[in-house]
Write the structure tokens for this entry.
Amino acid sequence: MKNVICFFYVLLFIGCQKADDVSSCIPVPEHFPDITYPDNNQPTEARLALGKQLFFDTQLSIDSTISCASCHFPEFAFSDTIPLSKGVNGAFGPRNAPSLLNAAYSPYFNKDGGVKKLDLFALVPIEDHKEMGISALRLTKRLASNTALQDQAQAAYGRPLDAFVMTRALGIFVRSLNSGDSRYDAYLQDSMALSAAEERGRVLFHSPRTNCSQCHEGIFFTNHQFENNGALEMYSDQGRKLVTAKETDRATFKVPSLRNVAITGPYMHNGSYATLEEIVDHYDQGGYDHPNKSPLIQPMHLDPQEKADLIAFLHTLTDQRYTTSRSEQ
Amino acid sequence: MKNSFYVFLALLGFGFTLISCSDDESDNTVTVTPTMDLQLRVGSETLSAGNIYEINGTALQVNVAQFYVGEITFTGEEANASEDFFVMGTNLNRINLPATEVGNYDLSFGVGVNAEINALSEDDFTSRPTGDPLGMQEPTMHWNWNAGYKFLRIDGMVDTDADGIPDQAVEYHLGSNPFYAILSSPEQISLTEADPAITVRFDLAALFAGADLSTGEVTHVGDNKPLADLMLANYTEAFSIIF
């Protein structure tokens, strides 16, 4: 099975064999649900190629220094390695850059869930003055004279490279970044056994003693809800309250997927936890008090072996395809 | 048979009469193409982008002041509603409205966009053509971090250290469905051939009545709901029809 997935992955990066064929453009692991595409943005080879081209293009920032890949490194599961990513003009982004893997399955985007369409998600970093800092309208004018990109846009969408084309093509590329080829996936499909420590960690992860899987549930290790996990004593970021204006949502953030968590640090909404060890210690101690803290976050009283077992299990969630740079891919 | 013929002629004549009356009525109908003109004010002063004004004792430099206006409805014997939305403000102060018969009307209009448009279904601001007020704007009138449009956008600088010089960038952005407001004229407006214009006054000072701008606080609704609620409550004073 793993070979089959790898085969599809290779196809992805050398280009789809047949235009307009969804399965050949964006393969989905057998144990994953199908990806839903909007009617106006069905995947094709040309759209995927354009999206990939744009993702690595620094022209998408106001001073042409930063691309999407500047903060979403392919070799770190399309996440960043520092707490807050550096944007244009020396500014730092407001939150830790998340992994983009399996974003196709998320019902909303941003850590506060403010964006409801994946096809509009790219506008957040492009237009944020602390990230890429350019309005989509201005970007459209800038790229109007880029013949190669314009030709790609016409081939992909039958129209010039405008905000619609940019956001849709990037949306197709991000949907192509599915991750379901970890050691844990092999274990799920009975093609590989976990080590003793990993298995102990798996059992502990799913036990009522830790409650980890209450929020990090299912095939994607997230319930797609918003929680406060007591990560900080004081929050400057209002979290989901920014979207809903409800006090009960203050300092709550989207429960992230734990897939590839071993290579997507630093952690939490602001990247304030550097290592998995710090994360496990945090949950073991029960976190800081907060009016909106999830009642599931309670002291666990884990011993050192149990902590090590949990971390060993978390390492099984790494998809090795996303640990190499773009050129190696 | 002969009687039938006379009856036919009589009916034909009556029919002509009806048609003739109908034509006479339509000939009397006069339609005009109204305009909505916007007066931007800060109290008694004219509001211009880049200028500094004193509001509630605090100096505010206004760089952007614009909002959506739409669903403009003239209600007389029948309602004549426009489904269009426009961006009005420091960059655009006159819009043309659909042809309307002269007469006296109750007038209502929305500030913001309605829930159907704000839902950003498959067609959203990125898929609309250049020049469409609901398409991409510069300055932007959509929220990228949140779903939907900015219904009202005021950007500028405020004086936070009481030296009279604005020193801190501020944004007051209202949006989301509960902030879509339908405003109605308190009395009927009269559309005439000689004067088909409607003048709406927007007073920034009235919008911020009761707000302490010197704190430098901003609002994008969710981050400062009290200030957003105050501004919304002030709409009825901030927007007025000039008769």
Summary: Chain B has two domains: 1-29, 33-242. Chain B touches chain A at residues 120, 122-127, 130, 136-140, 142-147, 176, 220-223, 225, 228 (CB under 8 Å). Residues 135 and 206 of chain B are 29 Å apart (CA to CA). The radius of gyration of chain B is 24 Å.
